């Protein structure tokens, strides 16, 4: 049981007697990654969904290389966006239901940093695999090599933005029973700028233009989301927890 | 590392707490102090707001009015200290089914305390989960999962423990063991606030009574000898 003070248990200094912020963030990240590895369907479902949505277009619209070459970047971007959204509902829901979120919110570290850890874990298990899978699907849609490279780059910058923005919606709807649909309605309008710049960059690259400006704008979006989204998500989580 | 309790002798002091939920007043004019070395039981029928009160004390619920002081100063000015010095175990204690008891404990305490694997392992053995240390928690019974959560109490260093229905699903022996642990903790100067439906075999409890009669929301604090209490 350890040694104890005879009269009163001493008050602990919140800074000196708890592990550092970094340690706490790594612990949250490690738990989430471990959970994803153990529950493989969480890892695979968004990926399979992505592949199927993308495969619907050649089947449903046209398998012509002229159409697919033109629309391929947009199809892949919309597919990645929908796949990310599909996985968002799980970001906080299980933790909310089993009490993990309460424990995280009560940790002495700032909640927004721990939330940032959870968002990073979400991106590592959904966003990053989508980016890795994209070259294969890009070839399937007759995209040329340069376009595929630029597309991957835009997704690499864009999918973290999707996870970050989505976390705010997920945090707001986590306490609601039918939060899934509402989450989509909340988040899709906020995804539109990312989508426009993402596909715009690939089209510009396809017509031979310089895309560094486009990419810089997307990077600016990422920085903005990185700074603001965890704060907003943490505030929303506190509201959701308070109402439960 | 530590600082002595200064100025105030109470850890937490609630004054004229009022909480309304779904248009119904759960309690009103509730005042009490939590001092080190006391055990407080929140009592009341189902739906009387016991869990809500504990969540308010933990800082999870914001839908209340009144004043809460922590060590003599308004609580909202020192959240860091409140969080580090309060251990809250809800009736959903944050145990993941796909993780083993060891992994669960490691994740739960990582941000609070530097606890070695040996200490965690010993705690799990002590709560009778030695052979199950590396079995995913989804294969454990409800009582065993509760034991995983309660294993935290064996090494927790927070001066204030808030335990919501800690005895749920435990067998008679485990209940007795937890009661002994709480009694020891209180004797050593810790403060414990808990809700439970069974009558714990513990002496010297401060009682906070919630919910008296239909349509008559009321709350009172009984004057057991151990604690400084004021009547709402």
UniProtKB/TrEMBL annotation, chain A:
- Transmembrane region(s): 43-61, 67-88, 119-142, 148-174, 181-203, 215-237
- What keywords tag this UniProt record? Cell inner membrane, Cell membrane, Cytochrome c-type biogenesis, Membrane, Transmembrane, Transmembrane helix, Transport
Q: What is this protein called?
A: Heme exporter protein B
Return the InterPro entries for the record: Cyt_c_biogenesis_CcmB (IPR003544), Cyt_c_CcmB_bac (IPR026031)
Q: Which Pfam families match?
A: CcmB
What this protein is reported to do is described as: Required for the export of heme to the periplasm for the biogenesis of c-type cytochromes.
Compartments, record wording: Cell inner membrane
Q: What is the lineage of its organism?
A: Bacteria, Pseudomonadati, Pseudomonadota, Gammaproteobacteria, Pseudomonadales
Presence of keyword DNA-binding = no
Q: Which family does it belong to?
A: Belongs to the CcmB/CycW/HelB family.
Q: How does it sit in the membrane?
A: Multi-pass membrane protein
| Entry keyword annotation includes Transcription | no
* Native source species: Marinobacter zhanjiangensis
UniProtKB/TrEMBL annotation, chain B:
List residues of the ABC transporter domain: 12-229
Which chain regions cross the lipid bilayer? none
Supply the InterPro entries for this chain: AAA+_ATPase, ABC_transporter-like_ATP-bd, ABC_transporter-like_CS, ABC_transptr_haem_export_CcmA, P-loop_NTPase
- SMART domains per record: AAA
Q: Where is this region: Disordered?
A: 213-232
Which keywords accompany this UniProt record?
ATP-binding, Cytochrome c-type biogenesis, Membrane, Nucleotide-binding, Translocase, Transport
Q: What is this protein called?
A: Cytochrome c biogenesis ATP-binding export protein CcmA
The primary gene name is ccmA
The GO molecular function terms of this record are: ATP binding
